[in-house]
C-alpha cells in the first residue's frame, strides 16, 4: 500500500523536496532509483499522514467515532507520535 511521504533529494550541488506516494513495505531506495535514476546522491524521507493538521482533541474525537480500522490505525500512529498510547 502506498502512503504519502516527504522526500528530500540531494543531487550534486542541489537539494529538492518532493511529496511522493511510496510503498513503505518495499525498499525506498529502489523506488526512488526507478523514478530518478542514478541522478540522486542521497535522500531522506518521512511518512506524512493526513492527520497532522488536526489538534489532539479533534483527533481523539475522530478516533473514538471512527468505525474504519484502517483510519483508526493511521490516527493511532499520529497520536502515538504525540506521546499517547505508549
What does this entry look like structurally?
With 86 residues, the protein is of the alpha+beta class. The protein is built from three helices and three strands, in the order ββαβαα. The chain has a three-stranded antiparallel beta sheet with strand order 2-1-3, with helices on one face. Strand 1 and strand 2 (15-23) form a beta hairpin. Helix 2 runs antiparallel to helix 3. The longest helix is centred in the last third of the chain and has 13 residues, at 69-81. The mean pLDDT is 87.
Brief account:
It contains 3 helices and 3 strands. By secondary structure, the protein is an alpha+beta fold.
Counted beta strands: 3
Number of helices: 3
Largest sheet: 3 strands, antiparallel
Structural class category? alpha+beta
Order of neighbouring strands in the sheet with most strands: 2-1-3
- Fraction of residues in H or I helices: 25-40%
What coarse outline follows from CA principal-axis ratios? elongated
Which percent band covers the strand fraction? 25-35%
C-alpha end-to-end distance: 25 Å
Q: Runs with pLDDT <50, length 5+?
A: none
What do the pLDDT scores average to? 87
Order of helices and strands: EEHEHH
What Rg is obtained from the alpha carbons, in whole angstroms? 16 Å
Features:
86 residues, alpha+beta, 3-stranded antiparallel β-sheet, 37% helix
List the topology elements.
Elements: E1 2-10, E2 15-23, H1 28-36, E3 42-47, H2 56-65, H3 69-81
Antiparallel strand pairs: 1-2, 1-3
